[in-house]
Amino acid sequence: MPICKTCGHKTGFLDVVDGECRRCRRQASEVDQRATEGTAMARKAYIDRIVVTTETAHNLPISRRLGIVSAERVFGLNAFKDMFVAVRDMVGGKSVTLEQAFQDARRDALEDLRARAADLGADAVVGIAFTHAQVAAGAINSAMVMVAVTGTAVTLEPSQAATAP
User: Where are the strands (E) in 78-164, listed by range?
Assistant: First the structure.
């Protein structure tokens, strides 16, 4: 009977591949997967801190530009909220409903942008810009609003990437 070189367990001939039993190969695979997930999570947490509207900054030594990243959020208000927004439009004043919808859309779009940049292996996103546009919807006198954010995904100098704010 073959013996696993990792754990020393006696196993069948069909279970051994490159001297390791099925259980040791599965454990090694799980460890590799956790390490990969941990690296991706660390990169995402790091990129959450570095998103700037300028193309350069004195404390961001950019080593490589990976490309443009973008994210969009399209939102609409339900008919009940649309009615109150229309009344607010006629009488004037601040529309808390629309402000909250825009804030939520910007936050969600920025979160998607960070995730897409992290997927590219970016350390930061520079030169971000927000765009807003009205999108026609199916109902009469109804519209949806799109919030788009774009930026350039970059990597930083290796010696500086760990210490950047």
Answer: 124-136, 143-156
